[in-house]
Amino acid sequence: MTKTLTKPLTKTVCIKTYGCQMNVYDSARMADVLAPLGYRPVEEPAEADMVLLNTCHIREKASEKVFSELGRLRQLRQAREERGLGRMVIGVAGCVAQAEGAEMLTRAPWVDLVLGPQAYHRLPEMVARLAREGGAQLDTDFPAEPKFDHLPAPGPRGPSAFLSIQEGCDRFCTFCVVPYTRGAEYSRPAAAILDEARALVDQGTIELTLLGQNVNAYHGAGPAGASWSLARLIRALADIPGLTRIRYTTSHPRDLTDDLIAAHAEVPALMPFLHLPVQSGSDRVLRAMNRGHTADAYVTLVDRLRAARPDLALSSDFIVGFPGETDAEFEDTLSLVGSVGFIQAYSFKYSPRPGTPAAAMPRQVPEAVKAQRLARLQEVLNTQQILFNRRCVGLEIDVLLDRAGRRPGQLLGRSPWMQPVHVAAPAATLGRARRVLIVDGQPNSLAGRLVSPEIPPDQVANAGPGTARALA
Ligand code: SAH
Ligand code: SF4
Ligand code: F3S
Fold first, then answer.
1. Do 362 and 405 belong together in one domain?
2. Closest atom of ligand 3 relative to the 57 alpha carbon
3. Could you tell me the pTM of the whole model?
């Protein structure tokens, strides 16, 4: 991490984030990089001297959204100029910038900055060059020097923070653009991660979510030279005083090693919730996707995780209508969902992405069929989620109260399983984890009461066996 002299915050930047949590992390880091140049983050593009769109290329819809947003920004810029507020700088960062590169400037020639996910530490140079020379600035290199070595210390992030530990992907699932937009797998050295974690904890963070496109492929250099696994890193992070909750995402089933399963059994700070994308329940489709495992192998992995940590709950990602997917193969996905049981999930219609092998595969599935399958899958997944939320009623769990609720006197927090929990609680408990009795389970959230000594212990389910019962 580099130290930089700080100017007074006289300018404003609005960073709009699309896509995955890594983009959320990157947006916060871009704000860190721009702070020494005098930029203060604002929410509204209309108020901003600079607007950066941190974009996502994963599906066509996500990618196309960027261009309509750029059209709106062009009008906003004009309106600002007419009001004599000076010229708004418009930049595109993230995965669409990486994928489209110079094309971006042909489709939206009013854009000033185009920078890929591996180049944002160079924002200050790009901004200076823009001011000096004018004309669009483009940087979609994969620089040899890792960007993390050039970023300032992180600003305060609140009680729950993201920390990128690994980036890029070498798995090349045949549907996915990530290996092209984020590049090859890179793991940050453990010491740099531990430093960043300590800096966050010193500023009030108590929960960390470790991020990577394939986070459990982490193999960063350890302090003594030999490389550390994700499990080894988690154990070291768990030793940081004040860091009470650790999560990681997104994992690939193929890289979920024995030592990581053991960490789930042995590290209490590791939360009992895992996002483990499976994509499909059909072995033929999984092979065509190049996922490298069968449906049975996934189920066995889940069994082993649950044996290690009985209250572990799972979420997943699914793609319906992958090229060639038959009705019977789609039924295999439904039956996997039935046998595993997910408490939350994301499911998508397959979207052909330029340059990926699956986009050129024969037997593309018609949109209408994809839509029908998605609706059926989502019905099953939603039912599982609702049942789980209902079964949580009566449990006493730790909730990290991390933001204000919608109603006065209410805070919103996260359960160990990431469900949003509404709790009537004093403002002083904001940023703390508190024991909460769950009194209501809605489809997308829970409601609870702070546990006070008045609640007789026999009305409160035990955290251990009780939570396992909710998952049964
Ligand atoms: N690294 C993660 C996920 C990356 S993208 C992993 O390995 O699972 C997040 C999710 O988007 C994927 O899990 C997949 O379900 C979905 N996705 C990726 N490419 C897609 C495409 N071309 N069409 C539809 N969904 C896609
Ligand atoms: Fe994409 Fe597959 Fe890599 Fe995940 S593991 S980022 S889905 S290529
Ligand atoms: Fe999207 Fe890039 Fe993340 S394509 S999902 S923002 S890695």
1. no
2. 4
3. 0.94
